[in-house]
Amino acid sequence: MPLPAMTHSSAFLLPASTPPPSNDAATTTYALVVLNQRLPRFAPLLWSRARLRLCADGGANRVFDGMPELLPGEDPAEVRARYKPDVIKGDMDSIRPEVMDYYSNLGTNIVDESHDQDTTDLHKCVSFITRDLPVSDKSNLCILVLGALGGRFDHEMGNINVLYRFSSTKIVLLSDDCSIFLLPKTHTHEIHIEKSIEGPHCGLIPIGRPSTSTTTTGLRWNLDNTSMSYGGLVSTSNIVDGDIVTVTSDSDLVWTISLRN
Fold first, then answer.
1. Which of 80, 120, 144, 164 has its CA 20 to 30 A from that of 130?
2. Can you give the residue ranges of the Thiamin pyrophosphokinase thiamin-binding domain (predicted)?
3. Is residue 90 helix, strand or coil?
4. Are the C-beta atoms of residues 97 and 57 closer than 8 Å to each other?
C-alpha cells in the first residue's frame, strides 16, 4: 500500500502582500513560539500570521527588546504593546522580572512549569499548543519556532529532538539563515520551494537513525535508494534545482534549506 503524501511549503515567509500559492492551504493554522535567541528579521511577519503566540521563558525578553529594534521607525512603547505574547511558558529561570510584570499587566497568561525539569521549554510550549489550541483539525496546524538555532549546541540538539518527539505535528525551526523540519518516514513528502525566499542550498540528514533507502527528485544530486548514516553519506550542501522536491525514506529525516536575506 502506498504511503500517504505530506506537503510542505515556506509560503508563510512570503511578504504579506503576496497571495498564498494554491499548494499552501489557506486553512493552515499557525502558532508561533519564540525561544531565547535573537529574533530573525521576519519575526513581525510571522507574528501577524499566527493564531497563538507563545514565548518560552527568556523568549519574552527577546520580544520585549527585539521587536522595537526590528521596527525602528515606530514608538517602542507602542510596538511592545502591540506584540504582546498570549502565553509565556517555561521554568522561568531566564525571563527578567520587569518583563514578566509588563506582560502580566497586559493580560499575558504566565504558566510557570519550574517543577518540570525533564522537558525543554520548547517541549512545554509544543505540548501546550497541541493540547489547548482550539483547532478542529490538528493536521492543519503548523508550529513556527524562532530562536531554536544558534547559541548553545545542546539547546539546538534538544530543539531538534522535539521534532522527533512530536513527529505527527508540523514544526518548523527558523533562523535568519535557514529553516529545519522533520520528514516522517510514515509519509512521502512533496516540498514546494519558494525560490524568492529560500534555497538553493539544502540538506537531508538522518539524525534519528540510519536510512537504508532514501529517494529524491528535484535536487542537483538526487538520492536513488541511497543509504545515509553518520560515519557514511549524509546529504549536506545539496542544491535545489526544481520547484518541487520529493522525498521518500525508510527513516525519519531532517530537511534543511537556506533562507535568502
1. 80
2. 187-253
3. strand
4. no
Instruction: Say how far apart CA 131 and CA 196 lie, in whole Å.
Output: 35
Cell triple for 249 = 525514506
Place of cell 524568492: 196
The amino acid present at 173, given as its one-letter code, is L
Query: Coil, strand or helix: which one is 30?
Result: strand
- Residue 115: pLDDT over 80: no
Backbone CA torsion sign across 258, 168, 48, 70: negative
pTM above threshold 0.85: yes
Check if the beta carbon of residue 44 is closer than 8 Å to that of residue 70. Answer: yes
Sign of CA dihedral 257, 47, 74, 36: negative
Please state, in angstroms and as integers, the Cα–Cα distance from residue 185 to each residue in 7, 69, 113, 121, 209, following that order: 14, 41, 32, 26, 11
Q: Which burial class, exposed, middle or buried, applies to 71 when counting CB atoms under 10 A from its CB (0-12, 13-18, 19+)?
A: middle
Q: Which of 138, 184, 182, 170 is nearest to 27 (CA)?
A: 138
Q: How far apart are CA 183 and CA 214, in angstroms?
A: 11
Residue with cell 506582560: 103
Give residues with Cβ within 8 angstroms of 184, minimum separation 6: 6, 167, 168, 252
